[in-house]
UniProtKB/TrEMBL annotation:
It comes from the Eukaryota. Belongs to the mitochondrial carrier (TC 2.A.29) family. The chain crosses the membrane at residues 114-133, 210-231, 252-276. The gene is gb19096. InterPro entries: MCP_dom_sf, MCP_transmembrane, SLC25A32-like. GO terms for biological process: nucleotide transport; transmembrane transport. It comes from Eleusine coracana subsp. coracana. It is a multi-pass membrane protein. Keywords: Membrane, Repeat, Transmembrane, Transmembrane helix, Transport. Coiled coil: none annotated. Solcar repeats lie at residues 2-96, 114-237, 252-343. This is Peroxisomal nicotinamide adenine dinucleotide carrier-like.
Length: 362
C-alpha cells in the first residue's frame, strides 16, 4: 500500500474521530456565524455571542440532544471524504517535492530539505482539489445545522407581518387574520434530513447551489495551508533540535503532535476566520426573514452587507467557540492520523517479516 493511500485512510479515520468529539461545538459555532444582528453600541457590545455553554444548553432544551448533532451523518461523510482526499494528494505532492529537494541537495543546490513556502504550496494545491470535490457535502451540512434557526426566523417574520395587518384591518378581517395567526402559533417544524436539504438547495439554485460559498472556501484553502506550513516547520525544528541530522517522524510523540497541531490550527484560524463566517452565511438558507440585509447574492454582496448592517464585529461572530472547536479537533486529527500511520507501517513490517520467516509449503 502506498504512503499516499495510508495517509489518506489515516486522515479520514482521524477526521471522523475528531468530528464526533467536537461536533456539538461546531453546530453552535455555525449558528453563531449565521445569526444576523445590527451594529451595536459599545455599551451593549459585551457578550454579543453569548456563552457557548449557555447556547448549547438552550439548544438541548428547545431541540433535544439531536439538535447538537444536526447534519452529523453527511458531516461524517464529508469529513472522511475531505480528510481522505486532502491527505492523499498532500502526501503525493509532499513525496514529489521531498524527492526534488533531495535531488537538488545532491547537486549542491540547497540543503536537501523542503522550504516553508513549498509546504504552503503543497497544502494549497491539495486543499483546492479537496474543496472542489467536497463543497456540496458541506453546503448540506450547513443547511442542516442552521435549518431550525432559519425556520424560526421565517416564522417570526410571518407573525410580525400578520400582527401589522391585524392592527390595520377592520373588524371583519381581524378574525380571519387571527385564525391565520393561531395556525402559525401551532405550526410545528417539519422533519429535516439530508434528502430534504438536497431538494431545497436544488429548488433554490439548481446544481450551482451545491457550490455556494466556493469563492471564500477556495480562499479559505489558505487556512489548512497556513496550518500545515506552521506544523511542518515546527515539527522540522523540533526534530533538528534533538540532533544535528533529520530524524524520522516516529521520534515525535503523540502528545507533541497534539500540541503542534493545536498551535498550527490556532494561528490559521485567527488569520482566516472572517472568510469562514462569509462562507457559512452563503451556504445557510438565505430566506431568513424578508429583510434584504439577510439575503446575499454572492461573496462580495455578503461582505458589503455585513460591513454595512453589522460592522466589522459581524466577521468575528463565534470566533471563541471556533478556536476551541477547531484547535481541539485539529489536535485530535493530527495525533490520531499520525498514530494510525505508525500502526499501518508496523502492520506492514510485521506481515513482511511473517512472509520471510514462514516456510513455504511444498
Amino acid at each position: 500500500m502506498s504512503s499516499a493511500v495510508v495517509n489518506g485512510l489515516a486522515g479520514a479515520g482521524g477526521g471522523i474521530i475528531a468530528q464526533i468529539i467536537t461536533y456539538p461545538l461546531q453546530t453552535v459555532n455555525t449558528r453563531q456565524q449565521t445569526e444576523r444582528s445590527a451594529k451595536k453600541r459599545k455599551s451593549s457590545s459585551r457578550g454579543t455571542d453569548g456563552s457557548t455553554l449557555f447556547q448549547m444548553l438552550q439548544l438541548i432544551q428547545t431541540e433535544g440532544w439531536g439538535g447538537l448533532y444536526s447534519g452529523l451523518k453527511p458531516s461524517l461523510a464529508g469529513t472522511a471524504a475531505s480528510q481522505g482526499i486532502y491527505y492523499y494528494f498532500y502526501q503525493i505532492l509532499k513525496n514529489r517535492v521531498e524527492d526534488l529537494a533531495a535531488a537538488r541537495g545532491k547537486k549542491g543546490l540547497g540543503d536537501g530539505t523542503v522550504g516553508m513556502f513549498s509546504w504552503l504550496g503543497i497544502a494549497a494545491v491539495a486543499g483546492s482539489i479537496n474543496v472542489l470535490l467536497t463543497n456540496p457535502i458541506w453546503v448540506l451540512v450547513t443547511r442542516m445545522q442552521t435549518h431550525t434557526q432559519a425556520e424560526r426566523k421565517i416564522l417570526e417574520s410571518k407573525k410580525e407581518l400578520l400582527l401589522k395587518e391585524v392592527s390595520r384591518a377592520n373588524s371583519m378581517e381581524v378574525s380571519v387574520l387571527k385564525d391565520r395567526l393561531d395556525k402559525l402559533e401551532s405550526e410545528k417544524l417539519r422533519p429535516y434530513g439530508t434528502l430534504q436539504a438536497i431538494r431545497e438547495v436544488y429548488r433554490e439554485s439548481g446544481l450551482r447551489g451545491f457550490w455556494k460559498g466556493i469563492v471564500p472556501t477556495l480562499i479559505m484553502v489558505c487556512n489548512p495551508s497556513i496550518q500545515f506550513m506552521i506544523y511542518e516547520t515546527l515539527a522540522k525544528r523540533l526534530q533538528s533540535k534533538r540532533s544535528g541530522k533529520q530524524l524520522a517522524k516516529k521520534n515525535i510523540t503523540a502528545m507533541e503532535v497534539f500540541l503542534l497541531g493545536a498551535i498550527a490550527k490556532l494561528g490559521a484560524t485567527v488569520i482566516t476566520y472572517p472568510l469562514l463566517v462569509v462562507k457559512s452565511r452563503l451556504q445557510a438558507k438565505q430566506e431568513i426573514g424578508r429583510n434584504v440585509a439577510s439575503r446575499y447574492t454572492g461573496t462580495i454582496d455578503a461582505i458589503l452587507k455585513m460591513i454595512r448592517y453589522e460592522g466589522c464585529h459581524g466577521f468575528y461572530k463565534g470566533m471563541g467557540t471556533k478556536i476551541v472547536q477547531s484547535v481541539f479537533a485539529a489536535s485530535v486529527l493530527f495525533m490520531v492520523k499520525e498514530e494510525l500511520v505508525k500502526l499501518a507501517v508496523l502492520l506492514v513490517a510485521r506481515s513482511r517479516t511473517l512472509l520471510i520467516t514462514t516456510p513455504q509449503k511444498r
